[in-house]
Amino acid sequence: MHAPKAAIFETAANLEAWPDFLPHYRYIRYLERGPTRNTVIMAATRSGIPISWTSEQLIDRDRLEVRFHHLKAFTKGMDVVWTFADTSAGVRVEIVHDLRFRVPPLAPIADALIGRFVIQHIASQTLLHIKAYLAPRI
């Protein structure tokens, strides 16, 4: 992305604003709110299919990381880490999902359906729209 790393980080950390510029997000509802830790219900769509989950969000300004731990829904137990690295071409924003399905024999099917079809698509759309949102601001 071509924006200051701090601006990208703060945009990623500010869940309350996400539905304003991420068209695939329906809402974010705070169950608990704090300066570095939040519990939220997040709701998005994937090709018109409504999806929601509950996550704990941790904002680490020292390490410039935004972390999520999914507490409910099909992705329960998944850990997500957003990292931000300066490169010669701009800031590389990476979202890493670590999901281990609770029923191992179903993991290949769940990985294809939930992992690739839902999670990767939503993450890609999120990065695409954050990039577009920040572009006019630089």
Largest sheet: 6 strands, antiparallel
| Count of helix runs | 3
Number of strands: 6
Question: Helix and strand succession?
Answer: HHEEEEEEH
Would you identify the regions where 5 or more consecutive residues have pLDDT less than 50?
A: none
Q: Give helix % range.
A: 25-40%
Strand order of the largest sheet: 1-2-3-4-5-6
Structural class: alpha+beta
Q: What is the straight-line distance between the termini?
A: 11 Å
* Beta-strand residue percentage: 35-45%
Note down, in words, how this protein is organized.
The protein is α+β, with helices and mostly antiparallel strands. Helices cover 30% and strands 41% of the residues. It has helices at 5-13, 18-21, 107-134, and strands at 25-32, 37-46, 49-60, 65-72, 79-87, 90-98. The protein is globular, with a radius of gyration of 15 Å. The model has no long low-confidence stretch (mean pLDDT 91).
Brief description of this entry?
This protein is α+β, with helices and mostly antiparallel strands and 138 residues long.
Keyword list:
138 residues; alpha+beta; six-stranded antiparallel beta sheet; 6 strands
Write the layout of secondary structure elements.
Layout: H1 5-13, H2 18-21, E1 25-32, E2 37-46, E3 49-60, E4 65-72, E5 79-87, E6 90-98, H3 107-134
Antiparallel strand pairs: 1-2, 2-3, 3-4, 4-5, 5-6
